[in-house]
Write a structure and sequence with these properties.
GO molecular function: lysozyme activity
Pfam family, one: Phage_lysozyme
Keywords: Antimicrobial, Bacteriolytic enzyme, Signal
Number of strands: 6
Strand order of the largest sheet: 1-2-3
Order of helices and strands: HEEEHEEEH
Signal peptide: 1-18
Largest sheet: 3 strands, antiparallel
Distance between the termini: 51 Å
InterPro entries: Glyco_hydro_24 (IPR002196), Lysozyme-like_dom_sf (IPR023346), Lysozyme_dom_sf (IPR023347)
Length: 157
């Protein structure tokens, strides 16, 4: 009986009509018309790795958009990633603290497990003695968190 109910529930779930597309603050209902501005490659969804960028800046798997083609129908996007109302929110002190706790803090430059010079909360140094960070070494935790927050802001653009 339990297996029959599970199988019935699975069958109903697999035939559900709506596939909501959810970003930070945006979702589209099935049948909603979207304007595609460009397309890019991404994670494959049911064998289709094309992603469509909508006019409001959101990326939607092409699998869910009825373009009439399994190939590109618009020019390729100049750069990947989100934007518009679907972009990541700005980091706040709580998110910086969470990542800092996970990463752990090292005040002096050290060689990480992959052989890269690293300092603070996981900053990968690009210049000799991490001169690019703009803070004195050994790094204090307050400056380490400032550096981490700056890097988080850059990565969410």
């Amino acid at each position: 009986m339990k297996l029959t109910l599970f199988a019935a529930a699975a069958a109903l779930a697999s035939t559900a009509a709506a596939f909501p597309i959810i970003g930070d603050s945006k979702s589209y209902a099935k049948g909603h018309d979207v304007t595609i501005t460009c397309q890019t490659g991404g994670t494959s969804v049911s064998g289709n790795s094309i992603w469509d960028k909508t006019s409001d800046g959101c990326y939607v798997a092409d699998y869910y958009v009825k373009t009439g083609s399994s190939g590109y129908v618009k020019p390729k996007c100049s750069s990947g990633g989100g934007g518009g109302s679907c972009s990541a929110t700005k980091s706040n002190a709580a998110s910086v603290d969470l990542i800092a706790e996970f990463e752990g803090f090292v005040a002096k430059v050290y060689i990480d497990a992959t052989g890269h010079p690293t300092v603070g909360y996981g900053h990968l140094c690009t210049k000799s003695k991490c001169a690019e960070i703009g803070y004195p070494i050994p790094l204090c935790q307050a400056n380490g968190k400032k550096l981490l927050a700056t890097e988080m802001a850059v990565s969410s653009l």
